[in-house]
UniProtKB/TrEMBL annotation:
This is Thioredoxin-like. It comes from the Bacteria. InterPro entries: Thioredoxin-like_fold, Thioredoxin-like_sf, Thioredoxin_domain, Thioredoxin_ResA/DsbE_sf. Keywords: Cytochrome c-type biogenesis, Disulfide bond, Redox-active center, Signal. GO terms for cellular component: cell envelope. CDD domains: TlpA_like_family. One of its GO terms (biological process) is cytochrome complex assembly. It comes from Riemerella columbipharyngis. Residues 1-18 form the signal peptide. Residues 27-171 form the Thioredoxin domain. The lineage of its organism: Bacteria, Pseudomonadati, Bacteroidota, Flavobacteriia, Flavobacteriales. The keyword NAD does not apply. Its main location: other. Gene3D superfamilies: Glutaredoxin. The keyword Transport does not apply.
Amino acid sequence: MKKIFFAVAASMSLAVMAQETPKVLKTTFSKKALEQKVTTLEGKHTQIKDILEKHKGKIVVLDFWASWCSDCVKAMPKAKELVQKNPDVDFIYLSLDRNETAWKKGIEKHHIENLYNYWFSSGWKNDFNNDIDLNWIPRYIVVNQNSGIAKYYAITPDDPSIQQTIDQLSKN
């Protein structure tokens, strides 16, 4: 009985911690974070700063996910609705899959091959994810037209603050 109680208490505690918004909300990415390399679908390596530079002048939503993540998979339909509702926004999917094969199968399975897809081949713990205090996936960050962080922390694609941020940035 004690084991069950502690298991339930521990899992509840982890769930609350994982969904807690970080105390410091950032507005920029560190230089070290922007130098983090990710893998393209073609197997090439590129830095986060180069990806953001390609999208400069556009509103960008960074979607952190993995094919093994049940919450990410459950969120996919709502994420697709967000994409459809915002055709002028660039959605960048950053995968935390454990290997390239799983990542590519996940892209195909969830029909996101027409969007921007990258994979953290270095795994969860890397300079970019450490800089943004990545503690849970899915996670969404809205980036403004100048590559600054406009919305730092959301864990569901239907979080109203994501659309509000996009709408506000669209007016500028």
